[in-house]
Amino acid sequence: xxxxxxxxxxxxxxxxxxxxxxxxxxxxxxxxxxxxxxxxxxxxxxxxxxxxxxxxxxxxxxxxxxxxxxxxxxxxxxxxxxxxxxxxxxxxxxxxxxxxxxxxxxxxxxxxxxxxxxxxxxxxxxxxxxxxxxxxxxxxxxxxxxxxxxxxxxxxxxxxxxxxxxxxxxxxxxxxxxxxxxxxxxxxxxxxxxxxxxxxxxxxxx
Length: 206
Hints:
Blueprint lengths: L1 H21 L9 H4 L4 E6 L4 H6 L1 H10 L4 E7 L14 E5 L1 H6 L1 H12 L5 E4 L8 H9 L4 E5 L10 E3 L8 H12 L14 H7 L1
Parallel strand pairs: 1-2, 1-4, 2-3, 4-5, 5-6
Helix pairs in contact: 4-8
C-alpha cells in the first residue's frame, strides 16, 4: 500500500508538470453580481470519505439559499455519494468512480462528456482548503464552466480562474467551506450539517 501511494504521488507530480506545459494561470475579474448570476452550478468533491461528504452539506444548503432558482449539481465519490440522495437542495448527482475509471479510461472519457454537457456556469471546487486535490481541480476545469472557483493553494491557479484566499486554520471545516458560498453571495449564515433520508430509507428504518 505504501508503494502504491508513492507511485500515485509520483504520477500526480508528473501530471502537474505536463499540465503546466498546456495550462496558463488565468484570473477572471468578476463581481458578486456576475458570480451570483449563474443558473447552473456544479459543486465538486470526488472524495470517498463519508465524513467529508457530510461536512459539505452546509455549503450545498448555502449555495441554494444564496442563489435562488439555481440548478445545483453535485459531483461526489461513488462509495458514499448516495447518502446525499435525499437532500432537497440537490437537483442533479454525478457519481465519480475513480477505480472504475482507472481500469477503463473510456468510461472516464464518457463521464467527462456527460460533465461538459451539463452546461454549468459556475463550478466550485469544494476540496479541503489546506490540501490541494489535483483530481478535484482537474474535474472542475473539465466541467467547462465559465467561472471556476476554489481556494488559493497549491497549483489551483492553473485550474481555477477565481481563487478564494485561505482563512485561519482554527476554523471548523464547515465554516471554511461556507467561505466559498459567502464569496459568491452573502447568506444568513445558518446552515448546519444534514443527512436527509429518502422515503425508502425511512420505511426501512421503521
